[in-house]
C-alpha cells in the first residue's frame, strides 16, 4: 500500500533513505544493515533445482541458500525474456516503462536501460553500501563501447565485470568481458567459474567496513553451452528432458 500522493519509486527511495539514516544514527551495538547477495541464473526454470523437487539435477549450493534463507513458491519474473526481466529486477518497474521491450542484441541498438532509471544498486550505494555486478548485464548493446548508453557503473555498481547477451566466441575461454569500462580480452576458463571468481575476488577486497550488495548473474544454464566437464560428467548417462 502506498501513501497518498507518493508513487512507488518515491516510496522505495524514501524508505531506504530513512532506513539508512536510522542505521547511521543507531547505537554502535545495534545490528548493522544486512549484506545482500542476488544470484541470477539465466533461464533456470522454477522446477530445475533439487530444492524445488527436481529428481535428477543436483544443486547443493542453491539448496543451502534455500535452507538458510527463504524459499519462495509464488514469485514471478517481470518477463520471460532476458533483457526485460533484468530491467524489472533492477528497477522494480514493468520493463516497458523502463524502456526495455525485448532482448537486446550484442550490437549497436537504441534500446537500453536509461540513465535516469532508479535501480536498487544506486539506492543502496546512496545508503552506504558497496556494490558489485559480476556476470551478464544485457541491458545495452554497447557494453564498454558507447558511454552515451548507461553502463553498469551509471546504475550504481562500484565495481562491475560483465558481458552482454552472451560470452563470445564461446562460454569456454571468452573474450568479450568488460571490467569497469575496460575490455578484458581473452580469459581462460568457463564463464560460470570466471564470473564466480571475479565476485569472490571483489568480496575479498571489499572488506567489512561497510555492508555490501553483490549481484552475480550467470549466463548458464540457458541453452546447451560449453560447460566444465566435471559438472557435465554426472549427467552423461541420463536422458535429456
Walkthrough of the structure:
With 241 residues, the protein is α/β, with parallel strands linked by helices. The protein is built from 6 helices and 6 strands; from the N terminus they run αβαααββββαβα. The protein has helices at residues 8-25, 60-68, 82-91, 120-126, 191-206, 229-232; strands at 36-42, 130-136, 159-163, 178-179, 182-183, 212-221. The chain has a 6-stranded mixed sheet, sandwiched between helices. The model is unreliable at 1-29 (pLDDT under 50).
Provide a short characterization of the protein structure.
It contains six helices and six strands. With 241 residues, the chain is of the alpha/beta class.
Helical fraction: 25-40%
Task: Kindly state the number of beta strands.
Answer: 6
Question: How many helical elements?
Answer: 6
Structural class, by secondary structure, is alpha/beta
Enumerate the strands of the largest sheet in spatial order, edge to edge or round the barrel. Answer: 1-6-2-3-4-5
- Overall pLDDT, averaged? 85
**Biggest sheet layout:** 6 strands, mixed
What overall form do the CA principal axes indicate? globular
Radius of gyration: 19 Å
Spans of at least 5 consecutive residues with low confidence: 1-29
β-strand amount: 5-15%
Distance between the termini: 42 Å
